[in-house]
Amino acid sequence: MLKLENICKYYNPGTINEMCLFEDYNLSVERGEFVSIVGSNGSGKTSMLNIICGSIPIDSGRILIEDKDITKTPEFKRAEYIGRVFQNPALGTCPDMTILENMAIADTKGKSFNLKKGTDKKRIDHYRELLLGLGLGLENKLEVKVGSLSGGQRQAMALLMSTMTPIDFLILDEHTAALDPKTADTIMQLTDKIVKEKKLTALMVTHNLRYAVEYGTRLIMMHEGRNVIDLKGDEKERLKVEDILLKFNEISIECGN
Amino acid sequence: MNTIILGIFEEGLIYAIMSLGVYITYKILDFPDLSVDGTYPLGAAVTAALIAAGANPLVAFPMAFIAGVLAGTVTGVIHVKLKVRDLLSGIIVSLGLYSVNLRVAGTANVSIFSKDSIFNNPIVNAVFPEGIKSLATVIILFVIVIVCKVLLDLYLNTRSGYLLRAAGSNDRLVTALAKDKGTVKILGLAIANGFAALAGGIMCQKQGFFDVNMGTGTVVIGLANVIIGTRIFKNVSFVKATTAVIIGSIIYKACVAIAINCGLNPGDLKLITAVLFLGILVISNMKKERHKKNAQA
């Protein structure tokens, strides 16, 4: 279980631009939940993911995973059990290395980065099989540099690479936002498949309300650092895009947009 | 004429070893490492001190390399742990090393002419007659350069090498792989400066003396070599980057030699080096601009 307890986060503390994003924010996510998070810009969605991953520090509060306090654990240590896919497809892969090398380096996660051969030849068939599952024809381009792939192809690889070795949590930070609608659909279906197959606990920030409603087991709408909607189970099943759109509009009017 | 060509190869090959290090920092890690100006003479100082004390010239190789590794680690720690900017970390280390080099060597000039070196010892002198001494030097250097290149290529294809390449290309991926990107940077700087110090040590053995000022401008030569090499062979996929850097070093040395033979004074060497480097940067910038324009059209 992942728990955020009494999180406080200020931006620009001590200046006239001081802004309080989270004040006493709490969230707990059960093992195996797939949480979709929606909300307007500046509502704290991405900040929350950054706090969970350790990319930004918090001013007070605690972050717990299975009752273990990880508040002080540095970002790279948390990556041992957290996989993350970013909005920018370039962030999840290494552009100067080939597809094969990228697969190999992702496969080495959790092992020692020693002087053994970077690519284990015996694993190549396994990588091919994984790439075949993407249905993008990448299995025949193993020697191609990832930098020359399209955004969608790179994002599919980033998703594959971040979930290749055993992890408990998958953090998806608007990971379909930079893709065209059709590719976004493909990546979204792939995400769902991987989350279900590997029984991952997933948190997905998205601006696509349809994805938020269609996928996942729980839906949270955030606004000014608070959860204004938090539904799971039957309530989430019955939820329609129109319902959250309505709430979205209410919030927007409140803000004067 | 022949002596000029052999001279180009001699110096070009020695600088190629140093440039392999600059290739790691500048091209792979995207880190402009100025500490090379200090680690190159550091290798020479260590070598001169050891050989003057009667050590085997071959022992000087690993010792010079290790000295460079330590100095590179210092640059890395200053940058990563103390959060000093990359250029400044290098400047601090190279300045500090000036004094360290004086301490290691004892004085500003140490001559090891009379001692055995890898280029001048009973075995080499028995195999190669006196007349083709320069050729022997070039052959020995060539072997050393190839060994360095192959070792670096092998390393870059290990798991650790993969991580180093990833750190320069996309350091978020290193974090995602649950590794500290700072440590990987320090490792890269250590290896790079190991190569620079090794080159300095070999230069010291070749010329038979250590001079405390021999490092001035090393980093510029290294960058020029790397940029020339990688630019020329940019679209030739079968030439490995390490090979390109070695060829670049020889081409650059040839350019400098031509300039000097056109009547310029050897004292103008640093100016020629600087102007040539500027020229290379301008040309490679112009090429990039043209690519951009073509891409937009």
Features:
heterodimer; A: 257 residues; alpha/beta; Rossmann fold; 4-stranded antiparallel sheet; 9 helices; globular; B: 297 residues; mainly alpha; two-stranded antiparallel sheet; 2 strands
Structural class of the helices, strands and pairings of chain A?
alpha/beta
For the sheet with most strands of chain A, the description reads: 6 strands, mixed
- The total count of helices of chain A amounts to 9
Q: What is the ordering of alpha helices and beta strands of chain B?
A: HHHHEHHHHHEHHH
Polypeptide structure, described:
The complex is a heterodimer of chains A (257) and B (297). By secondary structure, chain A is of the alpha/beta class. Chain A has one domain: P-loop containing nucleotide triphosphate hydrolases (Rossmann fold), CATH 3.40.50. In chain A, 35% of the residues lie in helices and 24% in strands. Chain A contains nine helices and ten strands. Chain A has helices at 45-53, 75-78, 99-108, 124-134, 151-162, 181-197, 209-214, 233-238, 241-255, and strands at 2-11, 19-29, 34-39, 60-65, 68-69, 82-85, 169-173, 201-205, 218-223, 226-232. In chain A, strands 6-7-8-3-9-10 form a six-stranded mixed beta sheet. In chain A, helix 5 (151-162) runs parallel beside helix 6. The mean pLDDT of chain A is 92. Chain B is an all-alpha fold and 297 residues long. Chain B has twelve helices and two strands; from the N terminus they run ααααβαααααβααα. Chain B has helices spanning 2-28, 36-52, 57-80, 86-105, 122-127, 133-156, 159-169, 171-176, 181-207, 218-232, 241-261, 269-296; strands at 109-111, 209-211. A two-stranded antiparallel ribbon of chain B has the order 1-2. Chain B is globular. Classes of the chains: A alpha/beta (257), B mainly alpha (297).
